[in-house]
Amino acid sequence: MMTQEIQKELLYILKKKKLLGVKYVEIPILSKNNELKRNLPNSRNELKEYVENCSLCELSKVKENSFFGKGQSSSSIYLVGLNIDFENKNIYLLLKEIMEEVISIDDIYMTNILKCKHKKIQKNFDFEVEQCLSYFEKEISFEKPKLIIAFADAFKYMMKNNDKIFDISGNVFEYKKIKIIPLMELNFLNKNPSYKEKMYQDLKKIKNVLEKI
Q: CATH classification of 64-210 is 1.10.1740.10, yes or no?
């Protein structure tokens, strides 16, 4: 009997083939560990177009548009969220305020794991992230950054780490052989400005890391 997990993988493979323009496919042989293997484009522009036409999960049906990334993709620093509206003026100004301790916001590349901009309210994005992580991993492979600064939710999914963000923020980890440092979520910081001092202390740690790479 086909399990729900296998059904999801099979549906994923068929949708991927459709995106590539394939009309007829043989029934695929699924891997024993049910890994979702992708043959993604080998250029940033092609990947961006692929993402914009993605329909692998429910978010694609409610998305306002797609957000692939913002800023200099050749930057040595990538700022990563789960689904942050980096194009929002208020968020940009908040980022500029906190990041100036480390580096100009205009010199940082900003991107999300979830590529669909949406207003869907839900607590669990496990399946959606499973689909989008391959896009994200391919995205950072083109011009591999030296440091990823990941906000709490993004860090949790990337590292499969459920530690409390207050216990680990500002510490250095490794993701795909790239240094990664978690920070508190922007929304939390905006609602709890008293934690800005904690954020600034974490940013000082990031500054020390940057001086060594």
A: no
